[in-house]
Design goal:
The protein has 1508 residues and is an alpha/beta fold. It is built from 49 helices and 28 strands. The strands form 8 sheets. Strands 5-6-7-3-8-9 form a 6-stranded mixed β-sheet, with helices on both faces. Strand 6, helix 22 and strand 7 form a beta-alpha-beta unit.
């Protein structure tokens, strides 16, 4: 489908001659191009046929099928190893012969070196000519090694690449065939891990596997040669070598153990960072930076502890492997000394060369082969386990093509279907479902959440296995999933879906799906690339693209799983009329919907409940059978109920399903809890006396205008802007020295760094000193041996005495010094490694902490403009490189660099003639490296960019698996995957070949260096001795392989230092204002007391180069006002929240209760404002921590908050209650439950100001109603600002703030605003439809009238209470009580006169009045307030604008501010404890609710009269 990934550039290796292939000359044109300019995808060479993903995938699929077929008898399990061996085994064995030749050459070279050294030994008998032959032989061996080494490594790496490609292709094909049972046993993460990590081990294992048999053969050959030269002493060295092998195995186990533990902490840290980055807006608004910061620090600390343990082991093992040959040489020489064997220079340097060789072959390569074989075997088992998961029957994959027939015969027949997702669950998912869908007919499926609607469609698609019954489909199916599926490609590719592009048909579909205007404003039209999962599109756009794709497939039968839920009312009506009843009118359609207004147009309606079909028929038939369609389907109206307080509430009765992967059982955790939740918020179907009754109080979804696509039906939709993410900044050129400085500065101060430099130089110095001392010692021993030989020869000839002086060699002294130096080599080696790894790990930890702190304090705009994946990449990949790869690579490079410098230095000092050749070789080396680095950097970048689409395509395929299978386009997706793999293979192939191109040229330079050293030694024989020649030649031979490895490691260090550079970039982000203000600017502890908000001349822009989103706005919100905020997309609604929370710093003045919020700390401000966000965000961990991360509240408070949002029963049903683990993203809770948890958070915070950001946009209408009801009850005395999604939720607000283009267009009561014919609010309301407009106007009118009536009552009561308040302020409580009693008596007499009451009650009133006066005269007025026996208890406290009267029991009430939030039952309990009876009137002069005080006072006075 993605044509952009295909290009034509034939691979020149196909035309290259054998010499060109051997020396990689065919790569020269690419290097030239890469040196001149940056390489692009089009410059990469096409893969050859043998490396193609399709070819390899087909071959492995066939071999695996053979394995499965052979094991059907049950005798053995199918083996992926056998399948792979049949494909690549022969080629791999041939490459083993090349390795054998290379290792044989390495064994021969020390023998020739021994011959060359004998030329410098007195009396050896080796002539000049023979010495030149020996020198030529050593040089020839170096050239042979340069030629044979690289074809072997390139060959095995290419086989490893083929194995990886074949396995990836097979795994992808398997993933497309997995049944639901198979899917339930794996996860997307596991499949991605198999493709990204497990199969990569094949690349590494095949490189070193041959050394497991070549190494022992080589060791036997070396043992035989050294036995011949040195005798039994050789066994001491081999004993040490054999002891090191099990030590290596033991350390390998420890490595694996520590790395496994560390990997768990790494996964935990990355998962945690993913949640934090994704939920950063919520974290900042809730002031949760500290608890999450502490959580990350805790996990990071555990991770670093594990990493340190790994590097402690690494330090010891590096010292052993680098200096392992010293141990072997010491053991051999020690035994020779004990056995009094002569120590000859030639055999000693042969010994050193051979143990150098065995150190690499046995300890390094064979050890790696063993470790990687174990890891490869584990990966093989994991892959085999996945390949054996259950899959759909193969006959089902192509059934739609096979069953294709003309459209007139297309149909779906469902007969008595029983099915369930989980066989272990007793309750079936579907039972007794039957239906027939003929051509041209629309069948609608309705039912509550969890009824099985999506599952029925899955059964039709054969995704849900049937227990009983049958489903037959005639014709090709098209399926539109409830969760719109969009993959990373252009918009056109998402719609065309690999089919032929037909413009006329395409344009017609765009118009039907209302996509024309959206495409018109996209940067590149329908060729605009949309991000992974369609992140750059809105939810409505994704839904319409998914629908357009189904239409373009031109299928015969259509299954539509609630495609209208993600779009607003107007667009939903347009799509229903133009697509469901228009474009598809002649085809069978099955529509799952919660838009009940469309049911009238369906030919048949199926009603499901708990998987069972409880109703079926036409709209008319179901209406006659007792279903209350008169209230259920009242056009677009909503029924409204008047609450006791006079407010008008409006909730919806349809079930608006919002679930993730509702048809898959693994995402439906705790289903019983969800049913319980649903049952608390809605009435469901009932069967009464055998008759079906569908009882729903409310009518429709209500006013669900999302205000994003406003306009009239037809072509008048307003387009939604596509938000494309910013391009990530990339650094060009090499990494500067400043990055290295910052890196080491973070890990070490100047003292530590100097100590590290000293240890590196000391370790290298000790290494060279040990070899120099051995050279000196061997020369002394050689001179002594030669003198003894001549002396003995003369004695044998008959001489009684000779004049030959036999040198005295203190062997014990030499052994002691040599052993001491070797001890120093090990000591300094271990200390160097420990210090180096400590510095690098400390640097990684410090830079991680700095970056995390920087991210946590960064402006929210940073997270808006950078995708989560981009930021997470710094914490996963870049920090991972700094933790695991960079320390080892940097250490390896440092060792190689010091060794190379030491080798060249020693060779030059021994024989200055060598410098004649070294100078031009260094020049050549610099030129070649610079030439290589520039191209390799481009290829490394291309390899990274071409790898990502492979995993993105896999992830997208798994997300849209049911859609892919429904459309029967598995073949196209397999082809697409193979194309992505081929593109990555092109880059990987170039990475392998460029590495070999450099390595072979550097090895040729080394061969020239070895040749120069060997021949110059012969030329300068007169000034050299055997020890110095052996030292310089041994070092020069060591350079072979090491030099090219060191250079490649230097390039790798530079590549990995890019990660440090990227981390440093994120460590310098601009920071927000301080979290806490200085003491002189801190607000009072009890601030805010009222919640009055004043905004004056405020402007807001998200960055300096973006337009102003709020333009000089001013408004005032009084305490406890309920404000609704409306406006179209981009009007600035969400920017108001940004402004008040100071997520972006505004200009102007914002005060809350007269405190300037721009001058205080961010936490001082944000802690005092509660918010219910639009998207409910839950974090992994216990539910308790999600509600109360600071542990500020008791369990009782948490349960009470859950009870108030109707979640208590649902949580109690969970196995662990409050300690239930929340899954990633909260997917084990429904969207509605998640939103209610966020509401419970707000209740717990109990702040004076609450902000609601379209909190009900993603929940079903019943949950919406529950949320609205809870908000009205629990936040009655708070200032509430609500950004509207459904207009009916804010029509009873005190005032509406209408925004347009960042300016306040209107701000008044909704009823008054709707009286303006040209007003913006009026226009927005009218776009919901005529009926709904009438409904909304009525809600606003009734709310306005109720509020005015309340205001009038308040004015009357306020005038009566004015004198009371004045008297209280003067502490004249007695007078206040008298006047209040007189007022009551007057009112009571009037009522008694009207009602004809007797004198008895008057006597009671007189008696009560007399007692009251006597008490007021005898008691202090202030003490009287708190008295226990008074008739009237007046509590003087803070007063706003009036007096609030509370009808309740008398009792002792403390003087002061009484919290008006105390529940009535709590007050009753408190007073009952004091032993008082609730007989009198308790006037609480405290915080007064301006809206309710008058009504409450009037009602309570009346109640008091009746009690008396």
């Amino acid at each position: 489908m993605d044509e952009s990934i295909r290009h034509h550039n034939p691979n020149p290796i196909l035309r290259a001659n054998p010499l060109s292939k051997l020396l990689f000359w065919w790569m020269n044109p690419l290097f030239k191009k890469g040196y001149e300019r940056q390489l692009e995808v089009e410059d990469m060479y096409n893969v050859v046929n043998e490396d193609q993903s399709e070819t390899l995938g087909n071959r492995l699929e066939e071999e695996w099928a053979k394995e499965v077929e052979r094991t059907k008898g049950g005798k053995r399990q199918p083996s992926l190893f056998r399948a792979l061996f049949r494909m690549f085994g022969f080629e791999y064995l041939l490459l083993g012969l090349i390795l054998l030749l290379e290792e044989a050459t390495k064994v021969i070279q020390p023998l020739l070196l021994g011959g060359l050294i004998r030329y410098f030994t007195p009396g050896s008998g080796v002539g000049k000519t023979e010495s030149y032959l020996f020198a030529g032989g050593v040089s020839l061996c170096a050239l042979v090694l340069a030629v044979t080494h690289h074809p072997y490594f390139f060959g095995v790496q290419r086989i490893g690449m083929k194995m990886r490609i074949a396995c990836c292709s097979l795994l992808y094909r398997k993933s497309l065939r997995l049944s639901n049972e198979g899917l339930s046993k794996t996860t997307t993460g596991q499949i991605v891990n198999l493709l990204s990590n497990d199969v990569n081990r094949f690349d590494q294992a095949v490189i070193f596997l041959h050394f497991l048999w070549v190494g022992p053969l080589e060791a036997v050959a070396v043992l035989a040669i050294l036995w011949h030269e040195l005798g039994p002493s050789t066994l001491a060295g081999f004993a040490v070598l054999l002891l090191l092998v099990p030590v290596q195995g033991w350390m390998g186990k420890l490595f694996s153990k520590f790395r496994t533990k560390t990997a768990k902490y790494t996964d935990e840290r990355v998962r945690l960072m993913n949640e934090i980055i994704a939920g950063m807006r919520v974290i900042k608004m809730y002031c949760w930076e500290k608890p999450f910061g502490d959580l990350v620090k805790k996990v990071r600390k555990s991770q670093i502890l594990g990493i340190r343990k790994v590097y402690y082991l690494e330090s010891f093992w590096e010292a052993v492997t680098i200096n392992g040959r010293h141990l072997c040489v010491v053991a051999v020489i020690g035994l020779m000394h004990y056995l009094r064997q002569p120590m000859r220079t030639g055999p000693v340097y042969m010994l050193i060369s051979f143990f150098n060789l065995l150190r690499l072959t046995i300890l390094r390569f064979a050890g790696n082969g063993f470790d990687y074989s174990i890891a490869g075997y584990v990966s093989l088992v994991r892959v085999e386990t996945f390949l054996q998961l259950s899959e759909l029957p193969s006959t089902e994959l192509g059934r739609h093509e096979k069953d294709y027939s003309p459209a007139k015969n297309c149909r779906i027949v469902i007969e008595n279907v029983h099915a369930k997702w989980d066989k272990e669950v007793d309750q079936p998912t579907l039972q007794n479902v039957s239906a027939t869908v003929e051509s041209g007919r629309l069948v609608a499926i309705i039912g509550p959440v969890g009824a099985g609607k999506s599952s029925l469609l899955m059964a039709v698609l054969n995704e849900l296995p049937l227990l009983e019954g049958s489903i037959s489909v005639t014709g090709r199916l098209a399926y539109v999933s409830q969760q719109p599926w969009v993959f990373s490609a252009s918009l056109r590719q998402n719609i065309v879906f690999g089919n032929k592009y037909e413009k006329t048909k395409y344009d017609r579909i765009l118009k039907a799906c209302a996509l024309n205007k959206d495409i018109a404003i996209m940067p590149h039209g329908d060729l605009t690339l949309i991000g992974d999962r369609g992140v750059s599109l809105s939810g409505g756009q994704r839904a319409r693209v998914s629908l357009a794709r189904a239409l373009y497939m031109d299928a015969d039968v259509y299954l539509l799983d609630d495609p209208l839920s993600a779009v607003d009312t107007a667009v939903g009506r347009h799509i229903f009329e133009n697509v469901v009843q228009g474009y598809l009118k002649n085809k069978p359609r099955v529509l799952v919907t919660h838009q009940l207004q469309f049911l009238k147009e369906a030919e048949q309606i199926l009603i499901l409940k708990e998987g069972e079909m409880i109703g079926k028929g036409t709209f008319k038939e179901l209406s006659m059978s007792g279903i209350d369609f008169s209230s259920l389907l009242k056009s677009d109206d909503e029924q409204t109920d008047k609450t006791a307080s006079g407010h008008v509430t409006s909730t919806s009765g349809s079930h608006h399903l919002q679930r993730s992967m509702s048809h898959e059982p693994q995402s439906k955790l705790h289903e019983s809890s969800r049913h319980r939740l649903h049952s608390t918020s809605s009435k469901s179907h009932e069967v009464i006396n055998g008759n079906l009754r569908f009882s729903v109080h409310e009518s429709m979804r209500g006013s669900e205008l999302s205000l994003t696509s406003v306009g009239t039906i037809g072509d008048e939709f307003s387009a939604e802007e596509v938000q494309l993410p910013e391009e990530e900044e990339r650094h060009q050129g090499t990494v500067g020295l400043g990055i290295y400085y910052e890196y080491f500065k973070a890990g070490a101060g100047i003292i530590k760094f100097l100590l590290l430099v000293f240890l590196c130089l000391a370790a290298q110095g000790a290494y060279i000193l040990s070899d120099w001392w051995l050279s000196r010692w061997s020369n002394e021993e050689e001179a002594r041996y030669s003198a003894l030989e001549r002396h003995n020869a003369l004695l044998a000839e008959g001489y009684n005495a000779t004049n030959i002086t036999i040198p005295i060699v203190d062997t014990n002294f030499n052994v002691s010094v040599f052993s001491g130096i070797i001890g120093g080599v090990f000591l300094f080696g271990i200390l160097r490694a420990l210090m180096f790894f400590k510095v690098t790990v400390d640097a990684s930890q410090a830079l991680h902490n700095t970056m995390f702190a920087s991210i946590l304090r960064s402006h929210i705009g940073f997270f808006d403009t950078n995708p989560v994946g981009r930021i997470l990449n710094r914490f996963s990949k870049d920090i991972g490189h700094m933790d695991d790869l960079l320390p080892v690579t940097f250490f390896d490079f440092t060792q190689c660099a010091l060794l190379i410098l030491g080798i060249v230095g020693v060779a030059g000092v021994v024989n200055p003639w060598v410098f004649i050749v070294v100078a031009p070789l260094i020049v050549l080396f610099v030129i070649i490296r610079r030439y290589y680095i520039r191209t390799s950097r481009h290829i490394k970048r291309l390899e990274g960019t071409t790898r990502s689409p492979v995993f993105s395509h896999l992830s997208a395929s798994l997300q849209g698996l049911h859609t892919i299978r429904a459309f029967s386009v598995q073949g196209k997706f397999i082809e697409e995957f193979d194309n992505h793999q081929d593109l990555h293979t092109e880059a990987w192939f170039l990475f392998l070949t460029t590495s070999r191109w450099l390595a072979i040229r550097l090895d040729w330079l080394c061969a020239m260096f070895v040749t120069a050293v060997s021949f110059f030694c012969v030329v300068a024989a007169d000034s050299l001795n055997a020890g110095l020649v052996g030292l310089s030649m041994t070092y020069a031979m060591t350079l072979m392989g090491m030099f090219q490895w060191g250079v490649r490691q230097s390039a790798e260090v530079e590549n990995q230092m890019i990660s440090v550079e990227r981390v440093l970039d994120y460590s310098r982000l601009p920071s927000e204002a301080p979290l806490e203000a200085p003491n002189d600017r801190k607000p009072p502890p009890d601030w805010p007391q009222h919640g009055r908000i004043s905004v004056q001349r405020v402007s807001l822009k998200y960055s300096t180069d973006t337009p102003t989103v709020l333009k000089n706005i001013s408004f005032t919100i009084e305490a406890r006002e309920k404000i609704g905020i409306v406006g179209r997309t981009g009007a600035g609604k969400s920017s108001l929240i940004t402004m008040l929370f100071r997520l972006v710093e505004p200009t102007g003045s914002i005060t809350i209760d007269d405190v300037d919020t721009l001058q205080i700390g961010l936490h001082d401000l944000r802690n005092q404002i509660s918010i219910i966000p639009q998207d409910p965000v839950l974090f992994t961990g216990k539910l308790r921590r999600n509600l109360d991360p600071f542990s500020n509240h008791s369990d009782d408070a948490l349960w009470k908050a859950l009870g108030e949002v109707q979640l208590k029963n649902a949580v109690e049903d969970l196995p662990h209650g409050l300690d239930t683990e929340v899954s990633e993203g909260g997917i084990n809770f429904s969207v509605g439950q998640r939103q209610l948890i966020c509401l419970a958070r707000a209740i717990l915070r109990n702040n004076k100001i609450l902000m609601i950001d379209e909190a009900t946009a993603n929940v079903d209408p019943r949950t919406d109603g529950l949320i609205q009801q809870t908000i009205r009850e629990k936040f009655r005395k708070c200032t509430v600002l609500t950004i509207a999604h459904r207009l009916h939720t804010i029509m009873d607000s005190d005032r509406l703030l209408v925004l347009h283009d960042g300016e306040i267009e209107e701000f008044d009561a909704p009823h008054l605003l709707l009286q303006k014919p040209e007003g913006l609010l009026r226009k927005l309301v009218e776009q919901t439809g005529k009926t709904e407009t009438t409904n909304l106007i009525e809600i606003a009118r009734k709310s306005y009238e109720n509020k005015n009536r309340d205001d009038i009552n308040e004015e009357v009561q306020a005038s009566n209470l004015a004198e009371i308040m004045r008297a209280i302020s003067l502490h004249d409580v007695a007078m206040t009580i008298e006047e209040l009693d007189e007022l009551r008596m007057a009112e009571n007499k009037e009522k008694e006169a009207e009602n004809g009451t007797g004198d008895k009650e008057e006597d009671i009133e007189d008696a009560a009045e007399k007692v009251s006066r006597e008490e007021s005269e005898t008691k202090d007025p202030i003490q009287d307030i708190g008295g226990k026996d008074e008739d009237l208890n007046v509590d003087v406290g803070e007063m706003d604008n009036g007096v609030k009267s509370v009808d309740g029991p008398t009792g002792e009430t403390p003087v002061g501010d009484v919290d008006d939030e105390v529940e009535s039952e709590e007050k009753s309990k408190l007073l009952a404890d004091n032993g008082k009876k609730a007989d009198d009137l308790d006037v609480d002069v405290g915080k007064v609710d301006e809206n309710d005080e008058a009504n409450e006072t009037e009602n309570l006075l009346s109640k008091d009269e009746h009690r008396k």
